[in-house]
From TrEMBL:
GO terms of molecular function: ADP-ribose diphosphatase activity
Protein name per Swiss-Prot or TrEMBL: ADP-ribose pyrophosphatase
Domain Nudix hydrolase: 49-182
Keyword rRNA-binding set for record: no
InterPro entries according to UniProt: Nudix_hydrolase, NUDIX_hydrolase-like_dom_sf, NUDIX_hydrolase_CS, NUDIX_hydrolase_dom
Protein species of origin: Desulfocicer vacuolatum DSM 3385
Keyword presence, Hydrolase: yes
Listed Gene3D superfamilies: Nucleoside Triphosphate Pyrophosphohydrolase
SUPFAM superfamilies: Nudix
Entry similarity comment: Belongs to the Nudix hydrolase family.
Keywords associated with the record: Hydrolase
GO BP, sorted A to Z: nucleoside phosphate metabolic process; ribose phosphate metabolic process
């Protein structure tokens, strides 16, 4: 496979479409359209040391429960169950972004980072966006005061039994990472 050309085909503020011309393994010329938040897509410049975004998997120390959110997503036309998440701002570390996003979306304070994944990709057929999973302990009181006007979020504190109930409700929409982590939590009681 050989990348021949990358062309930006939209001019939006936060997300754009790019077309890539490439030659496949049988020397056929082809093209692929994908979305990217970057000014220079990762296929053209592999020097991005940090993930684009963070997904925080918080466990509330005082409540001894897993923290999830239920958030309205316009492309889904409804609510999705997932974890607090957001973009890494310029100059932030993964841990700084995780603490900021957790506070903004739930009101909880990040106390301890337990582990962090390297940049991972969840929909590489459509986008080059990468995220780091940040498993963390948190505490404090719930508050939605940090939510933006475009965010409609409910905070959930889940026991293993609560989590099992969500997983057994087929009409709910889940983020793929959240489904896998929730299944693990139900089986083991750990994050």
């Amino acid at each position: 496979m050989q990348i021949k050309n990358i062309e930006k085909i939209t001019e939006q503020t936060h997300l754009n479409l790019f077309s890539i011309s490439y030659v496949d393994q049988r020397s056929h010329e082809k093209s692929w359209v994908f979305a990217s938040r970057k000014k220079v897509p990762e296929v053209a410049d592999n020097n991005f040391p940090l993930a684009d975004a963070v997904v925080i998997v918080p466990f509330h120390r005082e409540e001894k429960k897993l923290v999830m959110i239920r958030e309205f997503w316009v492309p889904l036309g409804g609510f999705q169950y997932g974890f607090p998440a957001g973009l890494v701002d310029p100059g932030e570390t993964i841990e700084m972004a995780a603490a900021r996003e957790l506070k903004e979306e739930t009101g909880f304070a990040l106390k301890t980072v337990l582990r962090t994944s390297p940049p991972i990709y969840s929909s590489s057929g459509m986008t080059d966006e990468s995220v780091s999973l940040v498993f963390a302990a948190c505490d404090g009181k719930e508050s939605l005061e940090g939510n933006e006007d475009s965010e409609e979020i409910s905070v959930l504190l889940l026991s293993r039994e609560d989590a099992k109930g969500l997983l057994n409700t087929p009409e709910l929409k889940f983020d793929v990472k959240s489904w896998i982590i929730l299944e693990h939590f139900v089986k083991t009681g750990t994050i």
